[in-house]
Amino acid sequence: MASPALPTPAKAQPSPEQENLLRNLPSDARAAYERSHNWADPGVLDPVILAILSDFAPHSCAAHLTTLPGSTRLIDDLGFDSLAITEVVFFAEDLFGISITNREIAEVRTIDDLRAFIRSKVATRSTP
Amino acid sequence: MPPLPVITGLGFITSIGNDRASVLRSLRELRHGFEPVEFLGNPNLPVKVAGTVKGFDFPTPNRRDWRWPASLTVDRELLRGLAPHGVYALCALKQALADAGLDPAALADGDTGLYCASAGSPFLLGHFLDQMHATRGERGNPMCIVSSIAGTLNFNLAACYKISGAVCGFSSACASSSHALGYAMDEIRLGRQTRMLVVAAEDVTAESILPFSSLRVLSNNPDPETASRPFDRQRDGFVGTGGSVAIVVEDAALARRRGVRIYAELIGWGQAGDGHSVAASHPEGAGLRSAMQRALGDAHVNAAAIDYVNAHAASTPSGDRSEVLALHSVFTGNSAKPHISSTKALTGHGLSLAGAMEIAFCALAVADRFIPGAAHLEEPDAVCAGLDLPRTSLDEAPRLVLKNSSGFGGSNVCHVLRRPA
Q1: pLDDT tens digits, A37-57
Q2: Rounded distance, CA B387 to CA B311, Å?
Q3: Of B312, B328, B339, B376, which is the active-site residue?
Q4: CATH code for B5-258?
Q5: Structural domain boundaries, residue A88
Q6: Looking at residue A66, which CATH number applies to its domain?
Q7: What pLDDT, on the 0 to 100 scale, is given for residue B380?
């Protein structure tokens, strides 16, 4: 049976600033961002989130980030420092057009925390 | 014996070479590092030449777009806090440490300090401030301050190398890194530290260089072969450059214990203000004259004993003239006259970087036994009559070298280097 037709999305274009942030991420992350951006489906964001984490991760752990369990702790296990986490959050804010408070940043401890957090923020944002 | 600061390691990322061997060849053969540039994509700008740093590229403020030679490594944890000149500085410091035979782990001993000089990164700071204004203050990059203000080199390098000795940045415009080296010498002479790392760097960007055009001090000569010609009658301003130089300074006793090569001894320095103008040098070079005399006094050396002067001369009409008058007043009446040249004819003016870069050149001249010539000098300004400005590099081994630096506000700093016995 054919899937029900999806509603025609109003195709949103990333802003020049968002394009600038995106162009150095891997192609699968860019494609996932495109999907989430146009279909407002935060469920496809994983490759984007992992690509951002990988980009800001300390050198020693960046390569195998995608194979790690979601319970991996950013500071204790991956060697992130608080500045690096702030940078990840800053990047995500700009890319997804969301806003994250300092209190919220402090609650992000694991890869899963970050994943769930960005998904929920993206799902509730007003305009991409 | 009281501590004697000596130079044991040098690192170069400059317009005339990204390693000691290339720099040495450029100085000996008078090869310049200039290229045509078009700042801000604007062909109408009168400034058309810069002392470019080859093999590096910083096309946007986005660090993922930055490139450096494949032979150099820059860790990503560090990169987030660095400006373009921070990347140069890291590369230069790695070279200098290797040159001095130092294990980076040894720098955390508390006996090693770090003095730096840079003007910060107007390129990055401008970008971050634009971002701030565009969001009416609601957004900001967490690394804005540490990567772009004038202390960025000491912030980053002190953390990277776990320096627990003296750490400071110096800000006296084009005399900054000469101040850094002078106070580094004092740390060693006072017995507070046994080793000092002196690192100076500047971006090579429109944001760093073009504001000097508003001050009318940049050359408008489009020819890379003649745009920078200190002491020449036709000089019309300086050519901007950047890059980085790192200098390892150690107490001679420590250097001897470690059995490392000593490039040159740092036997004295002096400084004096012009007390004259925020931007222009004193018309007779009063501050520079005093600074030279104080450096010679600190070194217990007579002016007549100086073999070579590496001048500050940036190729500006009034600045070069002031320095020449100061040189006349210090050296006239002495039976021996030093050879004089300004290596800015080859590199361009490195601003905060200039002093340390040129002191490193002097150390090379002392260790490699030559005197850099006065490049691009065709017809010396009449005021230079009586000064010895060799047109080519000389195979003469200088025993005593004087280095001049001058910066905005009339800061003048001079150093005396001596060949080790």
Answers
A1: 765 566 778 888 888 888 888
A2: 12
A3: B312
A4: 3.40.47.10
A5: 16-124
A6: 1.10.1200.10
A7: 98
Residue B174 bears catalytic tag: yes
- Phi/psi at B234 (nearest 5 deg)? -90, 0
Number of domains in chain A: 1
pLDDT band at A84 (very low <50, low <70, confident <90, very high): confident
Active site residue B384: no
Q: Are strands B167-170 and B34-36 parallel, antiparallel or unpaired?
A: unpaired
**DSSP string covering B111-178:** SEEEEEE----HHHHHHHHHHHHHTTTS---TTHHHHHSTTHHHHHHHHHTT--S-EEEE--GGGHHH
Angle between helices A111-124 and A82-96 (to 10 degrees): 30
Catalytic residue, from B174, B362, B384, B414: name it: B174
Between the alpha carbon of residue B183 and those of residues B98, B113, B117, B188, B189, the distances in Å are 23, 11, 12, 9, 10
**Is beta strand B112-117 parallel, antiparallel or unpaired with respect to B49-51?**
unpaired
Chain B residues touching A94 at Cβ < 8 A: 139
Domain ranges of chain B: 5-258, 268-418
Q: Cα(B266)–Cα(B61) distance, rounded to whole angstroms? A: 38
**Mean pLDDT, chain B, as a whole number?**
96
Residue A28 belongs to some domain of the structure: yes
Domain contains A96: yes
CATH architecture observed for domain B268-418? 3-Layer(aba) Sandwich (3.40)
Residue B215 has pLDDT above 80, yes or no: yes
Quote ipTM for the complex: 0.71
| pLDDT tens per residue across span A91-110 | 888 888 888 888 888 888 99
Question: For residue A82, which residues of chain B lie inside 8 Å, CB to CB?
Answer: none
Label residue A13 by pLDDT band (50, 70, 90): confident
Active site residue B349: yes
